[in-house]
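Input for the complex:
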Amino acid sequence: MKRKITLKDIAKELEVSISTVSKSLKDSPEIGEDTREKVKAFAALYNYKPNNIAISLKNRRTKNIALIIPEIVNDFFGEVIGGVEQVANEKGYNVIVCLSNESFDKEVVNIDTLAHGGQVDGFIISLSKETMLRQDYNHLIEVENQGMPLVMLDRVTEQVLCDKVIVDDARGSYNAVSHLIEQGCKKIALITTVDYISVGHLRTQGYIKALGDHGLELDPSLIVRIDGIAGCEDPIKKLVENQDIDGVFAVNELFAVTAMKAVQNHGKKVPQDVAIIGFSDGKLLKHATPAVSTVSQHGEEMGRVAVKMLLKRLQSDKEEESFSTRVIKTSLIKRESSGS
Amino acid sequence: MKRKITLKDIAKELEVSISTVSKSLKDSPEIGEDTREKVKAFAALYNYKPNNIAISLKNRRTKNIALIIPEIVNDFFGEVIGGVEQVANEKGYNVIVCLSNESFDKEVVNIDTLAHGGQVDGFIISLSKETMLRQDYNHLIEVENQGMPLVMLDRVTEQVLCDKVIVDDARGSYNAVSHLIEQGCKKIALITTVDYISVGHLRTQGYIKALGDHGLELDPSLIVRIDGIAGCEDPIKKLVENQDIDGVFAVNELFAVTAMKAVQNHGKKVPQDVAIIGFSDGKLLKHATPAVSTVSQHGEEMGRVAVKMLLKRLQSDKEEESFSTRVIKTSLIKRESSGS
DNA sequence: TGTTAACACGAAACCGTTATAGTTTGTCTA
DNA sequence: TAGACAAACTATAACGGTTTCGTGTTAACA
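Predicted:
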């Protein structure tokens, strides 16, 4: 590795002190104009860039932020990354992306390493499934105790006090289900996740409330709770074949598209026989045939907001204040799968 | 920000020197066993972790690598990130993900900042479209000149000498098209990108060769070249409606699924009337109805291989040697869209 | 009893910057 | 012509580690 040019190199070459070089480059009035110009010209010529590692050490901040997400092959998190990266870069921050792969252990290791190692100034995190199941948030609380800012995104918990960015899951699904009802659906199935996942739980509540408000009865046999992503086909197929349904609300992309496939394979038409609506606006729903209506959570926007909250904390010296939770509005994207 | 505990703190507390603490924690035989144990116990108690920034400064290496990709809302790059992250983490490296958003300028800025700022030890990059169009690779050549290892992935150029990881695009599409021909297709359309994109060009070549080898004539009116992602619907629709085709080979997910939609909307059945095959194995194809056959490029594997090549360079002190290009085999995933 | 080597530890330099506190000059003033 | 003061630099001490080179103590040996 060829060594990069340093202040010392410039100083030696121009026969001035390191301080002079440093100050010249920062346009300090302490240094005479001619010296200043000379140094700057030389630096530009040799393409000098200050060593950020040294600066980090000096300033005790790295200008790096960590983004910890459960998985990446999911359009929602993809969008989040995009949003985070965009704003962070604008503000001169780098983003270190870490995948927990839905594993508690990996989440803990990632956070501990980055936090104690002093590699990042703050965290944006979306909890892994395992973490939510265990309800063990000590690693996060410790981060907070260290005085490192932490922003939780989408998959959050009230057991950690920090800034949060979420969508109004309950209202989003309320709207989705209401939409189905307005389209004439009477027997609407819900395909959701197990309850310990915050968003799954809230979306289920929205479904229940929408039915109630529109005078429809809640039929538990129309609700399927799915744990993993892996084996979702079977229960969905069973639901579609055994229940007489005319609408489906699925809490994520995959469930929605899988349900549509099951419906079509079962010889029914979407949306004529069964209307379908999903949650999260990825490519999967957009490019399905027919295109699937959905509740958009605006992942990019969420990412952008999360960074902004984080940077605000990083840039204000006064600690504490109170924490806030930003709720990003969802919007209903009506496509072919839920009627005209 | 509460200050993290340092060697100095431990030293003061235990009334030994900083060196003693440092050596104890590294299990140096220079230090007596009891002192060593005492220090280690104390460090463990206070959860001491060395400051990686300081270590980076001292060692002149950061244990960070940069991964620069054109976009993220694309399953292929999502998989690549996964693979890179996995191996990198195993080896104690962090991954800084940067998006060029297909922009030359952003690619250059990202690379310059990270390279000169000394934030990373090496790069893995997939070129932006704009970069390939302009054929300006000076930013990459400069990285190389600095002695920083660079691995190019998927979208590469021969104009930069470095390690590369690619798939055999030509062979992959040759196989795909041959498969269609074996299924009885005679008039196979090609939906591809403009030629300056290395992979688009190669995939087109594979198509042409497959036709030739099977005695089919090349009909230029069956080839559609699409520039952006945005307006791909129209030309595809036109192709489907105006040409009498019985097969489609699309060089990416989106084109494939858009073509399928056009075919179905045009009143034809997939695969009975028109067989379809795509490239890259994302969710879009897997969960379409019918599921679309494709050429898998094994993105995760490519990511893994790329990091390994990078780390090998980083860990060997001897420079130069020769560069190698690893070709990852594609595999044909036969699904419903191309017949039984 | 003096020499020496092993042992256990400390001092100091260094990585590249920045910030603070000097130190030279030269000029102007009283 | 000494004294004050500004201008233009330089020296130094951090930041938090690692590492090389001492150094003082003790024990073994001739």
